[in-house]
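Why this split exists: single-chain examples teach little about how molecules sit against one another. For that reason, every record in the complexes split bundles all components of an assembly together and asks for one structure covering all of them. Below is a record exactly as it appears in the raw files.
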Amino acid sequence: MSLLEVRDLRVHFESRDLYNQRRVASALNGVTFALDKGEILGLVGESGAGKSLTTLALLGLLRPPARIVGGSARFDGQELVGMPPAALNRIRGTELTMVVQSPRTSLDPLARIGDQLVRMQRRRGPVDKAEAMRRAQAMLEEVGIPDAARRLQAWPHQLSGGMAQRVLMALALVNRPRLLIADEPTTGLDVTVQAQVLDTLRALVQGRGMAALMITHDLGVIAHYCTRVAVMFAGTIVEQGTVTEVFRNPAHPYTRALLASTPRRIAQSGYRITGGAPPNLYALPTGCPYQDRCPQRAAICATPPPAAEAGGSHRAWCHFAVPRPETVDA
Amino acid sequence: MTAPVLELRNLVQRFPTPDGRSVHAVNDVSLALRPGEILGLVGESGSGKSTIGMIATRLLDATAGQVLFEGRDITHLPERELRGLRARLQIVFQDPWSALNPRMTIRRSLQEPFLLHSDLRGATRERAVEATADLVHLPRASLDRYPHELSGGQLQRVCIARAIALRPKLIVLDEPTSSLDLSVRAGILQLLEELRRELGVAMLFISHDLETLELVSDRIVVLYLGRIVEQAPTRQLFAAPTHPYTQALLSATLPPDPDAPLARHVLSGEIPSPLDLPPGCFFAGRCPIALPACREGPPPAHQRGPGHVATCIRVPDGSSALPA
């Protein structure tokens, strides 16, 4: 059994238009993936593809008009979908934690760093303050914050962006969670600082046997820090596999378009027209969600694409993603 | 050699803080752009790259230094005379959502440059608006829509259209693709290259992303805390990065290929505060190969090749390479 098993997760936004007609945006349309201990799964896709929404749904953080309309998410065997708030609260912040993108607005501006770390530990139950402070300091050291003893007394506004991001990571890790969800954890950071934060994350995942789900739009981060990758489009996963499988042999046309639009690939192979209008979630086509932008579109694409096995754990949801034999070297 | 379209001489920008100190945002920056050239300005947050873009377009007055546009000193040009100049000197910002008036249709926004700077009226002006939309490959049907009805990529095309409408000599692009999705980003970069080819417009391309600049720019200037640490033709910069900071920046860029080896120089230490900059090289505190002399005075600029200058004390004896 995997640590996290998400199956056919569906989320709708229900609203009414100017004429009071009911409108439904199908934001997640059957998301399925699993995550094991020691893995970092990268979730990639364009804005509106449902990356952040997937994590909010897992954490029970959706608010109307968003609503889970189907599917299941099992964390360590427990069903998260429909779990009562009190039960969810025992898991969130302890077993299952999250690092968000904007460190500056996610720290309590009125509390010192040390106190925030102590407060976090109290989510698990009563703890001795001195002991909690000692753990807080150790945690700050673990995420690579120099002079941790002094930083316990610091206020959030005294920290640089990279420092604040690492403090958030310390908050998310101090309770030794089994799963960390990180939504664009390095997007606001400078590249020279990004490496320090990601190295820390990877070392912790591997060293403690935890797992991480990382949302990022940065293919370089996925290539070098994730073990597996899931590519999302219009609320579904269109391809997933190990990072090597997907980057070497992308099987879905959307994944190929995505990989072809990095500056480095453009420099090698020139520009290819890959963009296009984002899909209209109020009126998705039947069948493959990517058909309107796909260069390989055919009549069969109006029927739902099957999960094509592309070797190993590699799957692509495309009618034309024929299984490829392992590359044979001459 | 042709006269530069833009020349910045010894720019200094300080911003006063409420407690009487000052943020040293730009510290003696000089650079020049040739007509039709795309110059990349790269740096991390706080490097002063956006401030330089604002000064170049006179949206901000420098504390000291000179701005020359087409050979003419515009540093203290009064607002009335600047107006005429702005048709030739344009800027595109990072966030197209906030750069367009939400209450104007796209057509109305694109009419604005012609209303302000030309005497085109009626059908002639409409033809000019539509020709401008065509140049950036904006569907004509989008013209009568409002900004909220378009995607980010389309909106950025509108902003670029507005900037090129009057055929400027220079466009400052401040992170024009950073808020866009990867596939949309590629389309914008392709468009910019096309406009440079067709209109011969020079571009000062500000970005934190070296890979983007590698693709589009002819030359790159690397900034660190408001000071130029290195500048070189793009290929030369990538082939022989010389300043230790440039080397670290390049090695921190993660190629989107799991098989690509990483030559990692992970930096430690904190970036100094621009409120309290050290007397010597600003990078000395994080530089793995800093010498005692680096902390004493500002480092001299050394020529490393044609058009390639690095501001590091170790350049003359060739010892500026970071250890692997």
